[in-house]
Task: inverse folding
């Protein structure tokens, strides 16, 4: 069942769970113990890669101020590839000191977004990739560069692909091990997405390129299908679609892990995840943040079991 | 931009707006005048096919008890192909008397669903297709047979494809002009969907086959993409994703017209619809039913403009 003349799907897709980081970062801070219960539920789902937290300013992201405490627990699950997001060299050092050697470094492709989020231009953020890569490599880890607002910026509109290509080529030159393209505000659509993906792959043919999607406009899973059809094997997702801004009611976060697992597994694509356990983790996440999450499948499952 | 090596999209897709029927049928009844305001907004979106109402028992579907009054207004828009759903010959005669000659007739592919919804078995429902087709043809209209619960039934589980094939081959033999496969409970996924579509097309090679999707598990737009890639040119959708059952909070209805138009048009596929006007119609729908609709794009648009 993995093949259809117009839809040739791969045998497997590798999902990275980002609910602990992208999902929680805009929520009201929740206790570390509640986070660890969520992490336990996430790990139990069978996922193999988890972005556990971010080492950034606790003033900027109070919800993840307990990064060190969370990181200290990760040795409980030696089989999982944990990673953390960092915003600069200082964050990289903090992450490594806390025991997390696999790092993600986000660079906004538009200057307006980069300045608003990181207080510097895209070029300034790009210039330090090598320093962060060196830290990761010395610690035995890898560095993934994630390009934020890769398709559209909330301030500057459409992102010129040239800006993305400048970041990724520089990243690879400076030692980045992986790349990821982020649809930060959830505006991209299948053909636009693949056009940029193609350009990035052509510019960086030897590096794995993942895709980070948000479901803000209801097109997240369609984009995920398009990405998989185009050979993408690394997708980010968050349990429950965690990641909506609680100050913007109804805002959707990342694509929901359970929805992605549902259609992939039903289509014969192995994810390593067990749907019922992903749904359990999504319920734990919903309880932890204290408001309804946006995942349609989570709600459908809740109706079924109530 | 309509082509990518792994994603060849067609120049156009034909959307049928079903919010007035499938969208409203489970809502609390709203005044006919409010329905007509919604219909005005829908027509202004540029859509060319609208399922306007259904001629069924007002006891079974009180929300559409005003079918005759709605039908009487349809002559205001001579450029639109209006249709109505009927459940039997009597409904067909009522629809035609009210001026609607293009009919949709739903047959549930499982006996349990057919009995629960229509009080008879699938075979009994199939037996009268010819009589309904005759009525439509005598009135100068066409009959589309929609197979409900084509993939899964809430009572019987997976629907054996053989049951669907029996319905569609009989339908064509009895004079049905079009076919449509309905994912009534929103459980299907890309490869399963296409496997059944292929079987139906092989059995009925000369008849157009549309797809009717619900977004209950967040996979509606991914299924729509898969359908379009497999050559489907007729998709049902409802403004705002109207159609969730108000008694099951968060239940998703049909795939949202605006989300479908958004990614299709951005991908270079002509729908004839103008996104901003679809969003206006979705807002009118939301106001008419008096509760938040599930469309992510509608919510994102609401945040943007508030």
Result:
């Amino acid at each position: 069942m993995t093949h259809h003349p117009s839809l040739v799907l791969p045998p497997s897709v590798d999902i990275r769970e980002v609910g602990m980081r992208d999902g929680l970062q805009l929520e009201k801070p929740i206790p570390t113990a509640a986070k660890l219960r969520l992490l336990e539920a996430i790990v139990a789902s069978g996922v193999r890669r988890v972005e556990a937290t971010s080492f950034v300013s606790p003033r900027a992201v109070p919800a993840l101020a307990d990064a060190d405490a969370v990181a200290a627990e990760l040795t409980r699950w030696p089989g999982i590839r944990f990673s953390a997001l960092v915003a600069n060299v200082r964050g990289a050092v903090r992450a490594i000191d806390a025991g997390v050697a696999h790092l993600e470094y986000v660079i906004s492709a538009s200057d307006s977004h980069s300045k608003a989020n990181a207080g510097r231009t895209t070029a300034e953020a790009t210039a330090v990739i090598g320093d962060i890569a060196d830290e990761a490599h010395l610690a035995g880890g890898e560095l993934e560069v994630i390009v934020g607002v890769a398709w559209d910026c909330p301030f500057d509109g459409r992102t010129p692909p040239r800006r993305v290509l400048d970041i990724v080529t520089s990243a690879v030159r400076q030692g980045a091990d992986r790349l990821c393209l982020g649809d930060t505000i959830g505006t991209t659509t299948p053909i636009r997405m693949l056009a940029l993906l193609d350009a990035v792959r052509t510019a960086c043919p030897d590096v794995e390129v993942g895709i980070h999607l948000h479901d803000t406009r209801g097109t997240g899973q369609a984009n995920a299908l398009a990405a998989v059809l185009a050979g993408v094997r690394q997708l980010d997702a968050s349990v429950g679609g965690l990641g909506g801004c609680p100050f913007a009611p109804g805002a959707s976060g990342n694509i929901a892990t359970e929805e992605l697992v549902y259609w992939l597994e039903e289509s014969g694509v192995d994810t390593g995840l067990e749907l019922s356990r992903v749904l359990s983790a999504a319920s734990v996440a919903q309880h932890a943040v204290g408001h309804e999450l946006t995942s349609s499948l989570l709600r459908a499952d809740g109706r079924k079991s109530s």
About this structure: Chain B touches chain A through 52 residues (CB under 8 Å).
